[in-house]
Amino acid sequence: MPSPNELRKGTVIRYDGDLCVVIDFQRVSPGKGSSFVRTKIKSVKTGKVFENNFKSSENVEVEEVQYKKMQYLFNDGMLYTFMDNQTYEQISIGKDDIGDDIKYLKEGVEVTIVMHGDIPLTIQLPMKIQYKIVETEPAVKGDTASGNVLKDAVVDNGLRIRVPIFVGEGDDVMIATTDGSYAERVSK
Question: What positions does the domain Elongation factor P C-terminal occupy (predicted)?
Fold first, then answer.
């Protein structure tokens, strides 16, 4: 059985007889005592989210899951619909099952759906997603003296981010989905 140190976001485990998805984790190594992994896990059956600390010496029962590449199509406010580009099969996942990753979704983006049998559990985003800047302030001459000046911007799905001063409206940029930070400007 795997160690808690192998847990990642999206890992499916069996906890107290219930199927749960790890939605957040943090490895903690205190000065005294043994290290542990602090997790937020969500019950697939009830949708309840709770925190649990796993000692590094414990064993965790990891469930077998499948990963399907699918394209995001649309949402109705509560359900988010994805399509398999080979079979055209569509599945919907609830807003709560996707969690904070919703803010990165835009029509046409390809994600990985985590499935347990026929049940879609959650999504995994690519490391970076390309967006178009639709609103930002123009650069003012002299603002670049310090070299790493950032300004507010809005991208084509409504996400608000911070970008370097040289990025303008209409530019395509890559955003890191781990923390929502600007990664790079895409050349045209």
Answer: 129-185
Percentages (nearest 5) of helix, strand, coil residues in the chain: 5, 50, 45
Domains of the chain: 4-62 (2.30.30.30), 66-124 (2.40.50.140), 128-186 (2.40.50.140)
Tens of each residue's pLDDT in the chain, 188 residues: 678 888 888 788 998 888 888 888 888 888 888 888 899 998 888 878 889 999 888 888 988 889 899 999 999 989 999 999 899 999 999 888 888 889 999 999 999 998 888 889 888 899 999 999 999 988 766 655 555 788 999 999 999 999 999 899 999 999 999 889 999 999 87
